[in-house]
Amino acid sequence: DIVMTQSPDSLAVSLGERATINCKSSQSVLYSSNNRNYLAWYQHKQGQPPKLLIYWASTRESGVPDRFSGSGSGTDFTLTISSLQAEDVAVYYCQQYFSTPPTFGQGTKLEIK
Amino acid sequence: EVQLVESGGGLVQPGGSLRLSCVASGFTFSSYWMYWVRQAPGKGLVWVSHINSDGSSTSYADTVKGRFTISRDNAKNTVYLQVNSLRAEDTAVYFCARVAFRAFCSSTSCFSDFDHWGQGTLVTVSS
């Protein structure tokens, strides 16, 4: 199975500041035939289902604010929140879907400083 | 509007059983692979099982293989997870999730993010 490792485990950022979460996969999730990275990001708030933010590593899901962006390729990926809002407090997960089974990172807890 | 609604969770003794259900609406259920993902208290998201669109292909995490069975009834727009021989470590919120509409799925494999999730159903295994 592909192991997904996120860093940091937790993060405290001031309102309006940038938040950056990293995700590293144990093997490449870039599919060479279509040049797509099979990597998604989710936001998970307590008591709610996970919400898809980003797929193909950098494509924002419909309705997701543009302060959320994804980047990276191969084995190293980043989720960036450009200007943190209070409603962004959550746990964030990366997920690879390059191979079965799909696997998630351990999560990064984002809080307000 | 796509909706996934789980039910069937509860408190059960070690060794007991439950049947979890996930009723889907707002999309052509029979066209989509469906997944179960769980989250133990204080832990992250972990894939448990999945089933292809017609129910002919299933897969399980090693931790649940032989104890859990996934199935679906496309006439009822419902996916099930029969959970048997429950252990304390199975305590978790169980989410059903749908593969994205853009997923690359054949009859035997699927590679996708999950664009819709249910609210989850809590299974607590304790004596």
Q: Mind explaining what this structure looks like?
A:
Chain A is mainly beta and 113 residues long. Chain A is 0% helix and 51% strand. Chain A has no helices and 13 strands. Chain A has strands at residues 4-7, 10-13, 19-25, 30-31, 36-37, 39-44, 51-55, 59-60, 68-73, 76-81, 90-96, 103-104, 108-112. Chain A is globular, with a radius of gyration of 13 Å. Chain B is 0% helix and 51% strand. In chain B, the strands form three sheets. In chain B, strands 2, 4, 5, 6, 9, 12 and 13 form a seven-stranded mixed β-sheet that branches. Chain B has a four-stranded antiparallel β-sheet with strand order 1-3-8-7, with no helix packed on it. At the A-B interface, β6, β7, β11 and β12 of A face β5, β11 and β12 of B.
Keyword list:
heterodimer; A: 113 residues; mainly beta; 7-stranded mixed beta sheet; 4-stranded antiparallel beta sheet; B: 127 residues; 13 strands; globular
Task: Summarize the structure in short.
The complex is a heterodimer of chains A (113) and B (127). Chain A has strands at 4-7, 10-13, 19-25, 30-31, 36-37, 39-44, 51-55, 59-60, 68-73, 76-81, 90-96, 103-104, 108-112.
Give helix % range of chain A: under 10%
DSSP strand (E) fraction of chain A? over 45%
Which structural class should the secondary elements of chain B be placed in?
mainly beta
Distance separating the two termini of chain A: 36 Å
As residue ranges, the low-confidence spans of chain A are none
- The rounded distance between the terminal residues' Cα atoms of chain B is 40 Å
Largest interface comes to: A-B, 25 and 22 residues
Largest sheet of chain A: 7 strands, mixed
Rg of chain A, nearest Å? 13 Å
Mean pLDDT of chain A: 97
